[in-house]
Amino acid sequence: MKLDSKIPSGPLEGKWEKHIMEGKLVNPANKRKYDIIIVGSGLAGSSAAATLGELGYKVKCFTFHDSPRRAHSIAAQGGINAAKNYQNDGDSVYRLFYDTIKGGDFRSREANVYRLAQVSANIIDQCAAQGVPFAREYGGLLANRSFGGAQVSRTFYARGQTGQQLLLGAYSALSRQVGLGTVELCANEEMLELVVVDGHAKGIITRNLNTGEISRHSAHAVVLGTGGYGNVFNLSTYARQSNVTAAWRAHRKGAAFANPCYTQIHPTCIPVSGDYQSKLTLMSESLRNDGRIWAPKKKGDKRPPSQIPEEERDYYLERKYPSFGNLAPRDISSRAAKEACDDGRGVGETGLGVYLDFSDAIKRLGADTIKERYGNLFDIYKEITDESAYEVPMRIYPAVHYTMGGLWVDYNLMSNLEGLFVMGEANFSDHGANRLGASALMQGLADGYFVLPYTIPHYLANLTASSAPSTDDQEFVKAEEAVKERTEKLLGNKGSKSVKSFHKRLGNIMWDHCGMARTKEKLEEAIKLIPELRKEFWADVRVPGEGKELNQSLESAGRVADFLELGELMCRDALAREESCGGHFREEHQYEDGEAKRDDENFAHVAAWEYKGEDQEPVRHTEELVYESVKFATRSYK
Amino acid sequence: MNVKLRVWRQKNSETEGRFENYEAKNLNPNMSFLEMMDVVNEDLTDAGEEPIAFAHDCREGICGTCSCMIDGKPHGPEHGVATCQTYMRSFKDGDTITVEPFRATAFPIVKDLVTDRAAFDKIQQAGGFITVRTGAAPDANSIPIGKEIADLAMDAAACIGCGACVAACKNASAMLFVSAKAGQLNLLPQGQPEKDRRVLSMVAAMDEAGFGNCTNQYECSAACPKMISEEFISKLNRDFVGATVRNAVKAKAL
Asked: Which residues are paired to B23 by β-bridges?
């Protein structure tokens, strides 16, 4: 497998412009001769579909949702970063670039991240012009706030619903193109197979979720913007339908999967309250500005928090990281909470929780100020737990909420499979081993509005064949048969256990073995457990209902089947990466004080896995990360 | 706690539906309504029956997918929340809860509690946007917008497109939905050039999709999980009248 990142030569600052100048263009009259399939309608998918449709290409945009607006980008709360320097606080493209590289623990690709920082300012302009109601100052200019991992205020926001507003902006641009007829919207269609003809991605097979109809779609290029795979853990802050299927099907057809073990676990989520729980909810990182995190010093202390005296409380972040205290970064704060709970000092019914206590802040600032700052978050907390955080401390616990890994792409966002492009959270390229807050929205829109529309013409212009292959091609027939066979197998299985029960068990294995802290022993154990579970799934899963109509159990079964394969790959990747970096923490690789120990000499590379067949060991390939502009440095928060 | 359920079951849009009775036992009051439904569905699956189809996704009240009519109220008894943010503690032990899909001609039933709300997308496609090419935007700070106007636009933009407004309305009108999107864009300076065209196109698309007329009773606003104000309906009416007059005059002049 060849992994050529195709990073342009020359100084970092000029790479993107040079690349644009050197790329081929497609003449306006010829654009309509090219069909492009876009799978996914989140920030990346909607923005790319709208932009390519507007340029004149024939675009089909697929989403398994009933409307593009349901994509999970909608749930992002905090904001979007951009190097506008509107605050006059010393921000610049280079500073945003450097913060992102450092935040990613020096495991992302320099040229990609620099480009991301360069186009970040255009995104804000674009969204404001679309009517996205960003927060404003009284004078009418845009407001900013601060986010983790940065010392400048560069985050733009729309209340606590920034993702919603940006997605609705992209959705409105997409809707305009659908109305004009340049984009065909295919809602309720789930991609279940990628079609590869002569080594090029040429189409997809989809199932209509409402009718069960399976259909073939061909194009000159296929673009995936299908999001992350955090639901492999079952419980996460992802929407319940978020899944890896499109990306995984592409992986099975030859696209390399890069850094699958890089997952981000957010420290402040509302803890699991029972076995029935379906979903975890994030409590914004901003709460840690005024809240103090603690756990009881005594094991198994079941007293209500108000009855635990000050000297019996362990403010463990303040104790371990005195200079950053409660604002220690996400990965570190998450691991520390886990340690306390593993030690038997967790709180709440399940013992998997710690306190985020505002009583000192309320004493110091008054309840009104706290309400003004965090009122909406306190309301959400009350809604879910029926507890008032003004009176008792919040209970929080870490939860999976983003995946930095994804399909491998080059500088053009094209995977190693020609003609297959991957954007947003579905690719691996920009966040290294840890993503900074407010950077996911930036990347999704950068890829869709400003990167892909410049890189895809170069691929299309080089195509020799003038038309997309016929859907009667043998490869389409084979792919469709594979989908039908799999569907029938799942429905005909008539086993004894529900899909959900398997998802839960897989989630438990992943969380225990490949979660916040990983060891060789546990990972090796998981690599044995997951294939066993997979075997059991195919032998004993029960999928009620029929294939020719809406069947949510069937949808879920296909997705869980793919998670059962991905989970094993994540463990293999975590096992092979003998170092700790960002969200990937191997207990064997830490400094005496418990800090993550990176190994730049041996692991400053991207690990990209090649699929070799069912129950075959995948092959690990590497792409060296060459830093021309920045130097490796250690992160310390003591 | 235990509750009894009366749930609308309907195989597809062609077949007739009916209520079926189920029991949900040993519930934790801290469960969400949808988690209770998950439990019922697991029991049904284990018993070899087909689970109840219901729409859901983010389960944090923002995607607008979930859409149950609970005891005759869209999204259930609580104010300002979506179905997924309704918790079992809002009910009493032993309650009988009736669960139906959102009902409207423009939202045909797909199966059980799932409806097809593509009509909203059609309205959006007709005019719910500001025409701006990617890359053609001026610097964001070159268009100052007062905080009060920006905040008001944000109030309207908070709409999650769930359709509760339609389900709550005796006429199945989509006025609150349309007025929220049109209101957001019409309030902003960026939205002025297309204001008349937008309002006329969106209202025409709404009528074409089969939504009913508004008779100003504002059940929509009371049922809205984002508590969008009926004042946007007044604004839409004003904008519509203005657009119609200007359009008519222009037509004569030409």
From this structure: B4
CB distance A564 to A506 below 8 Å: yes
pLDDT above 80 (res A549): yes
Nearest CA in chain A to B129: A172
Domains in chain B: boundaries: 3-111, 118-253
Whether B239 and B186 have beta carbons less than 8 Å apart is answered as yes
In angstroms, rounded to a whole number, what is the distance separating the alpha carbons of residues A628 and B36? 55
Q: Rounded to the nearest 5°, which phi and psi values hold at A363?
A: -65, -45
What is the biggest distance separating any 2 CA atoms in chain B, rounded to whole angstroms?
71
Integer Cα distance of A256 and A253 in angstroms: 9
- Cross-chain Cβ contact A72/B125 below 8 Å: no
With contact defined as beta carbons under 8 Å apart, do A103 and A426 qualify? Answer: no
Find out whether A159 and A89 touch, Cβ atoms under 8 Å. Answer: no
∠ CA A110-A413-A431, rounded to 5°: 40
Cβ contact A128–B143 (<8 Å): yes
Tens-digit pLDDT string for chain B (254 aa): 999 999 999 999 999 999 999 999 999 999 999 999 999 999 999 999 999 999 999 999 999 999 999 999 999 999 999 999 999 999 999 999 999 999 999 999 999 999 999 999 999 999 999 999 999 999 999 999 999 999 999 999 999 999 999 999 999 999 999 999 999 999 999 999 999 999 999 999 999 999 999 999 999 999 999 999 999 999 999 999 999 999 888 765 44
As assigned by CATH, the class of the B3-111 domain is alpha beta
Helix (H, G, I), strand (E, B) or coil at A284: coil
Q: With an 8 Å Cβ cutoff, is A450 touching chain B?
A: yes
Note whether A224 and A40 are within 8 A (CB).
Answer: yes
CATH code for B118-253? 1.10.1060.10
User: To the nearest 10°, the Cα dihedral for A109, A112, A114, A118?
Assistant: -170
Question: How far is residue A465 from each of residues A52, A198, A214, A582, B24, measured CA to CA in Å?
Answer: 20, 12, 27, 44, 59
pTM score > 0.90 for this model?
A: yes
State ipTM: 0.97
Extended beta strands in A104-262, E state = 155-156, 183-186, 189-197, 200-208, 214-218, 221-224, 257-258
Question: Distance between terminal CA atoms of chain B?
Answer: 70
Q: Which domains does chain A have, with CATH numbers?
A: 266-399 (3.90.700.10), 480-612 (1.20.58.100)
Whether the CB-CB separation of A417 and A306 falls below 8 Å is answered with no
Neighbouring C-beta atoms of residue A338, cutoff 10 Å: 21
Question: Which value, to the nearest 10 degrees, does the dihedral of the CA atoms of residues A433, A226, B59, A231 take?
Answer: -50
**Which residue's structure tokens are 């639901």?**
A231
Interface of B with A in 3-42 (CB under 8 A): 11-12, 28, 30-32, 34-36, 38-39, 42
Torsion of CA A255, A174, A214, B43, to 10 degrees: 90
B124 closest CA partner among A448, A169, A210: A169
**Cβ neighbours of B151 (radius 10 Å):** 14
